[in-house]
Design a protein that fits this description.
The chain is mostly beta strands. It has one domain. About 10% of the residues lie in helices and about 40% in strands. The protein has four helices and 17 strands. Strands 4, 5, 7, 8, 9, 13, 14, 16 and 17 form a nine-stranded mixed β-sheet that branches. Strands 1, 2, 3 and 6 form a four-stranded antiparallel β-sheet that branches. Strands 10, 11, 12 and 15 form a four-stranded antiparallel β-sheet that branches. The longest helix is centred in the N-terminal third of the chain and has 10 residues. About 40% of the residues are buried.
Length: about 280
Amino acid sequence: MRPLRLVVLVLLGALVAGSAAAHEFWLAPTSYMPKPRQAVEVGAVAGTGFRGPAMPFSSLRCVHLIARTDRTLDLGRYARNGELIWASFAPSDAQGALLAFESTFTPIELPAAEFDAYLKLEGLDQPLAARAKTPGARGRERYRRCAKAWLAGSDAARATKPVGMPLEIVPTSAPGADPVLRVRVALDGKPLAGALVKAWRSEVDSTGAPFDPEARDSAVVAWQGRTDAKGETMVPVPESGEWLVSAVHMVPCRDKSVADWESTWASLTFERRRPR
């Protein structure tokens, strides 16, 4: 991944418009397999097909940005507004680290046809059915992000223990260690049945570093499936490379003066190890 740029000025309107067209959002470290005390730069990307531009940090939109090792570190306190490098983190051991970010809500509004197409694409059947009663209504929504990234290590419990975000993809084993990853989608800590889970894959370079997500080609969805009654599904990740797993949940907005709907987007990024 090439060095992340420093944004001097960001127009809020451009951010909102870009987010409306770019559904996925993920944490993008410069390495998923750092050695102890090796610094890793962490940023975030919004896009489609596992491709998109880096997003600037905003303290107004950050609920928390943490790293879980043998303890929980608050990375958000060191992040600076407008920077594309959100944090520089060096794990102290080889047991792994879980990075997690939660945002506040951001409002958007889309034309009716575009909004309905987006609901269909993301498998949001209940909101789509409800909107059929008011055909032609613009899509007034507010959304938030719950993103995680796993930096590989020997202590799988650092990855499998929930962080406690509103919507969360919780792996039941260390992501990337096996060709199939069982995940549990949790809504407010409870299993979310019927959630559509998607996975994308991208190559890494010869050193094992992810390619620049803004410059690489878009990827098609490698797999998708819905969670069972326990909120779980098995995600096949057979090939080596960088992986993104995501899910979204939408409900009627609690504040109708702001939006009609509110969505929460969860993601998990990690690297599948090359077979030895």
